[in-house]
Write a structure and sequence with these properties.
about 350 residues; alpha+beta; 60s Ribosomal Protein L30, Chain: A; two-stranded antiparallel ribbon
């Protein structure tokens, strides 16, 4: 579940509208993560076969965040969840032809979550057993949902602390393999010396990232072969590695990366599949023309809580995403504003104060 994409916009929109404090906003985000991740854990991994959890489970998170900021009591929050559940949607079929639906899912989840909370605040009722009911979310969208994941450790273990950060600009199911490729890159030296790249991964992730020769930037983000080859050739898998000129009707147009793609062999390993989703493992073996074989493996990608990225690296990532569009000065102001959120008296004012010198308003 990409929790931030639906939960933070939903919480921010309601916090600005209601003039909520920064602390109230942060609490709402934390509560949103509780709802989204607990529902996601309960229905996965079978849910993931057909449904994009950011569009489904995170709708509950957006509703929880919005409901918290509206001060909904338990009954009204239950109504909000009922409405959120009946609007939760997001099918993986878009991935078959690289359609744009993935970006729509978090936006619609945020919208539906806010709508559900606003309706509940006005007395609009929702299903009281939207999760566990006979025709509820669990029954409809999972094969053997684990109901205990909803309340296990509730109030003691906070899901927001389990959050991971993506350090590469592509699907998270590729990140462990990318990290392995980057770890071996210096030893590889010249990529033309590579005769074969063997990647072992887990089944549910492979179903999402099996594109062998992507023809568009979007498809490339779901191509394990492309991102591993790119990491070895260029030492980075950032936004620039998905620029449109790199792709064409015949596939990857960047010649060095295109030359590596046929050398990538991916296998789904049962032991790695069994470890998912508790781990996101990958193994990489690179065979060279001189007969050497280089190997690397990991259970988690960098940025996951188990392999946490330094805060300075996360700040640098934020600046790198913001500065090309709005300038370095504005990027620095945004980072400073995030650190100051806990002291904001009115989120509407805090957000407006960011705008004047940014050319945004």
């Amino acid at each position: 579940v990409h929790g931030a994409a639906p939960i933070v916009p939903a919480a921010l929109a309601v916090a600005e509208r209601e003039g909520a404090s920064g602390r109230a906003f942060l609490l709402a985000v934390a509560l949103g993560y509780e709802a989204a991740l607990r529902v996601g854990e309960a229905v996965n991994p079978s849910h993931y076969r057909f449904f994009h959890p950011t569009g489904t489970a995170a709708t509950f998170g957006a509703a929880a965040a919005a409901g918290s900021l509206l001060g909904l009591d338990a009954d009204r929050m239950l109504d909000a969840f009922g409405t959120a559940g009946t609007t939760a949607a997001g099918l993986w079929e878009f991935n078959a032809d690289g359609a744009m639906s993935k970006g729509l899912h978090p936006g619609k989840a945020a919208f539906n979550g806010v709508l559900a909370a606003d309706l509940a605040a006005q007395g609009f009722t929702g299903a009281s057993r939207i999760l566990e009911g006979e025709r509820g979310f669990f029954a409809a969208m999972s094969d053997g949902a684990d109901h205990t994941r909803i309340t296990d450790g509730l109030g003691e273990c906070w899901k927001v602390e389990e959050n991971g950060y993506k350090l590469h600009a592509c699907c998270g199911h590729t990140h462990t393999a990318i990290d392995a490729a980057l770890a071996l890159r210096a030893e590889v030296g010249d990529p033309t010396a590579i005769t074969e790249i063997r990647v072992a991964t887990y089944g549910p992730g492979w179903e999402i990232v099996k594109e062998a020769n992507p023809r568009t930037p979007y498809a490339a983000k779901f191509s394990l072969a492309y991102v591993v080859a790119t990491a070895l050739v260029e030492g980075r898998v950032g936004l620039e590695q998905f620029s449109p000129e790199r792709f064409g009707p015949e596939g990857v147009a960047e010649p060095r990366i295109a030359a590596l793609l046929p050398k990538v062999r991916v296998t789904v390993e049962p032991t790695l599949t069994a470890a998912y989703p508790a781990a996101w493992p990958a193994r990489l073996a690179i065979h060279l023309a001189n007969g050497r074989t280089l190997a690397a493996s990991a259970a988690y990608p960098r940025g996951h809580p188990e392999v946490a990225a330094p805060v300075a690296e996360l700040e640098a990532k934020a600046r790198g995403l913001i500065a090309p569009l709005y300038g370095a000065a504005f990027a620095n102001r945004v980072v400073a504003a995030v650190w100051a959120l806990r002291n904001a008296e009115d989120m509407g004012v805090a957000m407006r104060d960011l705008l004047p010198d940014a050319g945004l308003g």
